[in-house]
Amino acid sequence: MLLFTASTSFASGLMDHGEDLYAREKFEVALNGYLRTRGELLHNLDLDRGTTPSGRGLYATPLGDPNGQLLAVADLRVRTDLAVYAPFAAVAVKLRADLIDDLVMGSTPSLSPGTGTSPTPATSPGQLPTTLFRLKRAYAEALTPLGLLSAGRMGAHWGLGLLANGGDCLDCDRGDAADRIAFVTPVLGHFVAAAYDFTAVGPLSTRQDQIRGLVLEPSANVHSISFALMNPRTPVATERRRRAGRTTVEYGVLASHRWQDQDVPQSYLNVQGTALTSSQVVPRGFRATVFDVWARVTAPMLRVELEGALAFATVAQPSLIPGVLLRDPGTSLQWGGAAEIEVGSPTTRFSGGLYGGVASGDPAPGFGAYPAAGVKPVRGELDAPQADFPRDTRVDNFRFNPDYRVDRILFAEIVGTVTDALYVRPWAQARLVDLGPSSLKLRLSGTYTRALFASSTPGGDENLGLELHGSLRWESRDGFDALLEYAVLFPFAGLSNPAQGLQAQPAQLLRLRLAWVF
How many domains does the chain have? Predict the structure, then answer.
C-alpha cells in the first residue's frame, strides 16, 4: 500500500543523520517539491561603462541595439523530491527530479502556418541547453545498528552553504551533488561522518555489450574523501526548543581531501579527430585539502551563524599538452567566511540583522569567478585567469557557492559569485499583514561591497558599490509563495572605466517570483 504524504524538502549532505528512517508497517511514499516561475526586468547591467580590454561589456545588451538598456526574461521550474520507504526496515530510496529546470519561457517555440504557437520538448538551435527533465539525485539510505549508510548521487551541503550548497531554497538555481558513499554514526553526543566521492573519472569507453562503461585510465580518476564531526539538530527540533525558551548550540568541523595522479587532457579539450593513446597521458600530481568550521546559536530572539573555510591546493604539473612540461607547479591558498546575525523570531512583528562575509583574492587582474576562454589577464578585465604560467603560478581567490546569495545584481548577475571581496549587509523586516494562514512581509537591506585587491577590479579601485534592495513577500502555510523585489546598484570607482573616461552608472533589477510548494 502506498501512502502519499507532504513533507519538507529532503536534506542534503553529511549533516543528514536519518531522522525519517524507522520501521514502517507498509510501503510509504513521501512526495514534495514546488513549481516556480519568475519574471525579471534587467536595466543597464553593463553599467554604461564601455568595454574591457578584450572588447567585452560587463553584461549582455540587447542584440539589435548595443546602447539599449533593458532586458527581460521569464523562466519556469517544476521540482519533485520523492522518497520511498520500505516496510519493516529503516530503508529508503530517494530521488530528486526537475521535470522542468529553469526553462526560459518562450525559448522552445514550434511555429507553423495555421497552427499558432506550440512549445516543443527540446530547445531550439542556438538556445540554452535546457531540458525538460533532469534527474538531480538518486540515492539510498539504510539505518543500521552502527549508523546511517548512504550511497548514490546525493545532495552535498554543509553549514551555511558557503562551500557546498545543496540548492534547496526557492531562489536557488544550481545545487551541489556528489556521487558518494557515506556513513554517519553517533559518538559521545555527536555525529561522525565519513564519505568517499567518485569526483571524476578518466576517459570512458564501452564494454563488449556496448552498454556498460569502462574507465580507460584509472590513474586519471579524481578522488575525494571527507570526514566531519558535528552536532546538528533538525529545524523542527530547533524551533521547538526556541518556542520553549531554550537556546540551541550547533557546530561542526569538516575536512576534505581531493587528489588526481595523472590526466588525459585530450579527452575533455574537444580535440577533433585525435584518438586516445598512451602518449596522451600526462602527469598531474593534483592535491587539495579543505577545512571548514560551522557554528550556529539559536536563542528565543536571536540567531548567530558562522562558517569559515580554508583551502590548500597544488598542481605539480599544470601543462595540458602531452610532452610539454612546465617547470613550476601551480599552487593555491584560499580562505573565506560568512556570518549571519538575526534579531527577532518568526513570530515577531519586526526583525533585523546583519550579514557579512569575505572571500580571499588574488592580485591578478580580473575577479577569476568564471574566466572566459581567450581573455588575457590584463588590467581592466572583469574576469580573467588568475594564473599566467610561467610568470604567475598562484590562484588564491576563494569563490562562494553561487547559491549562497548575498545580493541581487553585482555578485549575483555581473560577477557571478562572491570572490576577492568583502561585503556588509544590514537588513530589517516587518510583517505588515496577517490574514488566516498567510502573511505579507516587507524587507529592506543595503549591501556595501569592496574588493580586496584594486588590481582585480575593472576600474582599478577597491570600492565596488552600494546595492539597495527591497521586497514584498506573501507567504502562506497552504503552500503559495509570492515575492516582488527591486534592487538598484550604485557602482563606485572599482566598476568604472578610466581607460575610456567612462564612469559606471546605476543598474536596476525588478523580479516577480511565484511559487506553489507541495
Answer: 1
Find the CATH number of the domain harbouring 475: 2.40.160.100
Q: Which residue has the cell 533585523?
A: 352
Q: Averaging pLDDT over each range in 21-25, 317-321, 509-513, which range is the top one?
A: 509-513
* pTM (predicted TM-score): 0.90
Does a structural domain hold residue 143?
A: yes
pLDDT tens-place string over residues 112-139? 554 455 555 544 444 454 567 889 999 9
Residues 6+ apart with CB under 8 A from 499: 53, 380
Q: What is the pLDDT of residue 454?
A: 96
| Residue 487 maps to a domain | yes
Q: Is residue 264 part of a domain?
A: yes
**Nearest CA-CA partner of 176 in 193, 160, 153:** 153
For residue 37, the enclosing domain spans 4-106+128-268+280-517
**Domain contains 499:** yes
Give the torsion sign (CA, 240, 243, 245, 250).
positive
Report pLDDT for 120. Answer: 52
Contact yes or no for 192/229 (Cβ under 8 A): yes
Res 119: pLDDT: 55
Vertex 465: Cα angle to 378 and 514 (nearest 5):
110
* Residues 329 and 286: beta-carbon distance below 8 Å: no
